[in-house]
Amino acid sequence: MHLAVLGSADSWYLRDLVRAAGTAHRVTSIPFSTLGCRLSNQRLEPPLLADAVLVRSMPPGSLEQVVFRMDLLARWEVAGTLVVNPPRAIEAAVDKFLASAKLQAAGLPIPRTICCQTALDAMAAFDELGCDVVVKPLFGSEGRGIARLQDEALALRAFRMLEQLGALIYLQEFIPHEGHDLRVLVVGQRVLGMRRTNPHDWRTNISRGARGEPLEVTAELANIAKRAADAVGAPLAGVDLLPGRDRTLYAIEVNAVPGWRALARVAGVDVARLVLEYIASRAAGGS
To answer: E strands, 130-230, where?
Structure first.
């Protein structure tokens, strides 16, 4: 199989995939900045000469650049190339409001969520959510741009700034928890997981100093993770689940461009090999 990886040529993940591929597969990198195409005689040129595409990153860009990238991925799909994850899944997962709405529609518990556009409405939401909220950028990952607000004056200042920037104000109730969450990786029908604990911060991202710990993925936990991944249409997904003190397991986010560096180390599994096996099977017509 020839796998084209959309992402940086310097990425650890590209190197890990090349290592796992050995001589069985060919893995090459395509930087997003090099994407382009021509349309002539109802054909897309140049055609993508690869059996499958793995979207390994989604760098920032203008609205036009991002829309074009998604359009081109969709055109490759129409032309018969396997794209993992599908562009619709990436679009759904990267949009926190849409992802939360899809998780809710799938019957999974989520934190109470309010989206609004004015500071006045945000203050009403702040009060409704118990004056303890997490404000998140609509687009973003690894805990960047996320803040917990409990003070009314600070909340008002933050909401006014967001309104002035023309940003959507996305608020979720803070879920009291025991300082850890669960990161579950779905690779087709395989499900792996780790517990992430951070004694120094309420955010449990590994990039924020959390430590990964082994996690037994029960049949129930695997089922929840697959339902979350299916909700956004991502066969390769990182699902964040938060066990609340109220004994509810909340679905927080689904990442359609999931990392596996820490999880592979904690679980003792060659995740890159699993990803390659899954994509190769799909490219060959498997499920």
So the answer is: 133-136, 147-149, 169-173, 180-187, 190-197, 211-214
C-alpha 113/C-alpha 115 separation (Å) is 7
Q: Taking Cα atoms as reference points, which of 182, 185, 198, 170 lies closest to residue 249?
A: 182
CA 242, 246, 249, 253 torsion: positive or negative?
A: negative
How does strand 43-45 pair with strand 38-40?
A: antiparallel
Say what the pTM is.
Answer: 0.90
Q: What are the tokens at 152?
A: 């009314």
Type of residue found at 10? D
Nearest to 102 by CA among 13, 4, 216, 234: 234
Parallel/antiparallel/unpaired status of strands 169-173 and 133-136 = antiparallel
pLDDT tens-digit profile of 131-165? 999 999 988 665 577 899 999 999 999 999 999 99
φ, ψ of residue 283 to 5 degrees: the values are: -65, -30
